[in-house]
Amino acid sequence: MTTYVALLRGINVGGKNVIKMTELKKSLEAVGLGDVRTYIQSGNLLLKSDEPESALCKKIESQIELRFGFSVAVILRTLAEFEQIIVRCPFPEKKVSEIESLSNSECLYVALLTDILSQDSVKSLLKYNSEYEEFFIEGRDIYLLFHQSIRNSKLASQLAKLEVPATVRNWKTMNKLLLLGQEMDENRPL
Prior knowledge:
The chain has seven helices and eight strands. By secondary structure, it is of the alpha+beta class.
């Protein structure tokens, strides 16, 4: 079985699309997904399945809509793909540490997309690349480095306007999900 990281877009934010993780876990196990685990309340899942990504994604989205009454986008990555996201980070650790120490907040994020962006979408994002908001696109992932808070970022606000669904996670969450995935992947040494 393949270990997947599943990220749900826009749940448990501002009192909208509320899902208790224990209920979500039970619901997904009921449709045959294996070893379902959750991490914090923002829609981070680890699970095992033999299904291909597109079928698995539809299965999870359908189950959420059926069980909880609303639709959400699900972004999937295999554990191997997730590991590559961490390994390929284009921003040097020293630079990230310096920015975090100056801003007193997290500065490194990843936007995970369902599909690769069109050239038009890439061009529209380039307008927001600046000395204070940097990004780098790698396949279906966008690395985001904010020298100030993500909360007031013009670049971050553009992600919701892309032609494909995207969800954003901070670097600490990304690393924690990788660690949890490695721990549950029986084929990998810890």
